[in-house]
Specification:
about 800 residues, alpha+beta
């Protein structure tokens, strides 16, 4: 909101400078966006009177004038303005005057006629007012007075950026109250003679939507002169508030809008058919607005209507057919309280934004309408003349907002502010804000003012006390806190370590929706029922995910369709499994999922181009498992999964408990997800993964280690992991290292068999192992393998 500093100081005039005033307003939460002068810098311009105005003998468009500026002699000035005429009061730039742009006025001759100055237009003085000629000052302007002083051009326009909750400051009355509170200064509201009805001119008013319009006032004023000029003082106050002067009736409604923050409207009484009805639109009615645009009034939009048609959008815009024109003789002034929710968004939905809608959307004082109606009527009678009828009111007290009753506790105030403000100061601040206050036993019982409709809870009062007390007056004391050791288990591995490792191995973290397409999810989990949302964002996002697979596979398809050939993604999040045993009927489980597709590596001249396979992702998964320092607890076991390729799928186990699955995506799912090429995925439970083994320090053996290699032939369906586990069990403490370094099938190995080449490292921490000890251990291993797996040693 823009306002004039001088206008504000008519209401309240604290002994502070302009900069201090702006700083005060900003620190009170009403941020000042800018302070600009109302006119450019100039000097030497005074009020003059045109005594003579005649045609220039040698120029059709020039006039020769004699100007009275209060000196002993009249001044000769040549002027080309079409509105120059005898008796006019004008702004005269004397010889030696300096106009904006460092333009200096000198003696001159124009077409042979001497000119000792210049008659100025608004533009030449750097005043943002459109005009076709020179400035026409009021006839009572004192001759010889400096124009800057007469027009108060040393004033400033202050632009305040108000938050939505401070609509009470969208008028001079609210800003003045705020400045008065901050400076403990008295606020003087303008006074006028109340208007008594001089004619009997009732108007019928019916409110059919009292929940949206709690109060509606109407008043007829007859025999007004719409062609009367708007006083210069009003034009200037409107201009400095960012509003252009139109005609006196519109200017008056705009003036009281800026003065009290209460929108008003004036109808041409002759264009109304019958009385006024406040109702909702039918959804089919047409209305041409004051800007000439025709709209179809939506059914959820409040309108002002006469007996036959809508004549205005309530709280937003008037209609063209009933607007005031130069031919208007009788007007109907309206002033209403509209509920913010009834107006909110209506203007925007129609591509409109007006000063009225801006205020009604945020809220106006529900007790202000009678005062504003009387103020506007008095201005109309003083400027345009006429006769006023009685004020007609339709009101529903039950639907008008009431002042809030709020308790403020001393304990809560001190806790929130971290500072103690004396009781008397708190009481004084609340009373200065216009609230009714009673204090007893550490509790303030506060009844707020109707214009502070943003006050609802205790924290609102705390904010007001802090704001008026001054945030800068609250000492900046650092909080004191005891340093306690964090309560966590060292064995709990943070998820960040897993994320960092995957990123280091070329993955990118994805964040997909917890809501998925139920059709796609049914392909991944055909036998599992999902939880369906009652009010989904869309049909494609109507089911809660049963695993990370659906979102990750869709992300791969999205990237591949955008020419991303190599994709490596991972995601951590919750899956949602319907479970009658759970409190809410659904079990939420934290999961980690990953997917790879495309080539193993980015294209490089030193590397062979090869498509990813099962063991690429298995290697990444084993690297994650390695973070736990408990590799031996994890194992893989061939399994089946409806979304994974038969024969390329394994269960992930920890301590023989299944915690997830890994495998190649089933070919039948490639087309539904828009995938191109082989895709490998895994998913496992995070809680089971993020448990690490604590390191146990042991002395390094000073005795030598011995390596023995064996190659055993076993059936090809026997897992190498099972073989390795048996060797560990038999080797006991002497076996300190075990490594499978080759798997072979082919010449020299029977059909249906495979050869496993295994390195065993034997060592004792108390003695040097003799050959006999080593041989016994190796014989025990070979014997156990033969017994358990029918394995045989290869030559």
């Amino acid at each position: 909101m823009k306002f004039s500093e001088s206008w504000l100081r008519e209401w309240v005039n604290p002994q502070v400078s302009r900069d201090e005033l702006s700083h005060q307003i900003t620190m009170a939460g009403l941020e000042v966006d800018g302070v600009d002068g109302v006119a450019a810098e100039f000097s030497g311009v005074v009020v003059g009177e045109v005594v003579e105005c005649g045609q220039h003998p040698d120029a059709d468009k020039l006039r020769v004038t004699k100007i009275n500026v209060g000196e002993d002699e009249l001044i000769d000035i040549v002027c080309g303005a079409p509105n120059c005429r005898q008796g006019l009061k004008v702004a005269v730039a004397m010889v030696g005057a300096v106009l904006p742009g460092d333009f200096k006025i000198k003696k001159a001759k124009l077409r042979g006629q001497p000119s000792f100055g210049m008659l100025c237009s608004y533009g030449e003085l750097g005043i943002d007012i459109e005009s076709d000629g020179i400035i026409e000052l009021p006839l009572d302007a004192p001759i010889g007075t400096d124009v800057r002083e007469y027009l108060d051009l040393n004033d400033a326009i202050i632009d305040v950026d108000l938050t939505a909750n401070r609509a009470d400051c969208l008028g001079m009355v609210g800003l003045a109250r705020e400045v008065g509170v901050l400076n403990r200064a008295e606020v003087t509201e303008p006074s006028w003679q109340a208007v008594e009805a001089s004619i009997d001119a009732p108007v019928s008013i019916e409110v059919k939507a009292p929940e949206a319009c709690g109060r509606y006032l109407g008043r007829v004023v007859k025999n007004v002169d719409v062609k009367a000029p708007t006083p210069l003082w009003m034009q200037e106050k409107l201009r400095r508030s960012g509003i252009r002067s139109i005609d006196p009736i519109v200017d008056i409604t705009n003036y009281v809008l800026i003065e009290f923050g209460q929108p008003m409207h004036a109808f041409d009484l002759a264009t109304l058919d019958g009385g006024i009805t406040v109702r909702y639109g039918s959804g089919e009615e047409k209305l041409t607005l004051l800007d000439g645009n025709e709209i179809t009034v939506p059914s959820n939009t409040l309108v002002i209507a006469d007996d036959n048609k809508p004549v205005a959008l309530a709280g937003v815009f008037g209609g063209e057919a009933t607007g005031v024109t130069t031919e208007t003789k009788d007007i109907l002034l309206e002033c209403a309280f509209f509920a913010p929710l009834a107006i909110l968004g209506k203007a925007r939905s129609l591509g409109l934004h007006t000063d009225s809608s801006h205020r009604f959307e945020r809220g106006v004082d529900p007790e202000l309408q009678h005062k504003v109606m009387d103020r506007a009527t008095r201005l109309v009678l003083d400027i345009c003349g006429g006769e006023a009828g009685q004020v007609v009111e339709a009101v529903s007290q039950d639907h008008l907002p009431k002042a809030a009753n709020i308790q403020l506790r001393r304990e809560k105030l001190d806790k929130k502010l971290g500072h103690h403000i004396p009781d008397a100061d708190v009481t004084e601040i609340l009373e200065r804000l216009g609230f009714s206050v009673a204090f007893e036993q550490g509790v303030w019982n506060v009844t707020t003012a109707t214009y502070r409709f943003d006050m609802a809870i205790e924290e609102d009062l705390i904010e007001e006390v802090a704001r008026i007390y001054g945030y800068n007056n609250i000492p900046n004391i650092a909080p004191v806190a005891a340093l306690n050791m964090s309560d966590h288990k060292e064995a709990d591995m943070p998820l960040k370590r897993v994320r960092d490792l995957l990123v280091a191995r070329g993955f990118q973290e994805a964040i997909t929706y917890s809501f998925v397409d139920p059709k796609l999810q049914a392909l991944v989990h055909p036998e599992q029922e999902a939880m369906v949302l009652p009010n989904p964002i869309s049909v494609e996002m109507s089911a809660m995910r049963l695993s990370m697979f659906t979102g990750l596979l869709a992300a791969v398809g999205h990237n591949q369709s955008r020419q991303q050939g190599r994709v490596r993604l991972f995601e951590s999040g919750l899956r949602f499994i319907p479970d009658e045993q759970a409190d809410s009927g659904v079990r939420q489980q934290a999961m980690l999922g990953a997917v790879i597709s495309g080539n193993q590596n980015d294209e490089h001249w030193s590397m062979e181009s090869k498509t990813v396979d099962f063991f690429d992702l298995k290697g990444d998964l084993e690297a994650i498992m390695g973070l736990t320092a408990a590799d031996s607890e994890f194992s893989f076991r061939a399994a089946s999964h409806p979304a994974l390729h038969p024969g390329q799928c394994a269960e992930i186990l920890r301590n023989n408990r299944v915690i997830g699955h890994i495998g190649a995506l089933h070919p039948s799912l490639e087309k539904p997800f828009g995938l191109n090429g082989k895709t490998i995925v895994f998913e496992l439970e995070l809680d089971a993964l993020l448990q690490s083994s604590l390191p146990l320090a042991q002395a390094v053996s000073k005795f030598p280690a011995n390596r023995r290699d064996i190659a055993v032939a076993v059936d090809e369906n026997i897992s190498a992991t099972d073989v390795m586990n048996l060797i560990r069990k038999v080797g006991e403490n002497q076996l300190v290292g075990l490594n499978l370094f080759d798997v072979y099938q082919g010449k020299g190995v029977e059909s249906g068999k495979k050869s496993l080449a295994i390195a065993l490292t034997l060592q004792d921490i108390t003695r040097t192992l003799e050959e006999k000890d080593i041989t016994e251990t190796m014989d025990s291993v070979v014997s156990a393998l033969k017994t358990e797996f029918n394995a045989s040693l290869r030559d």
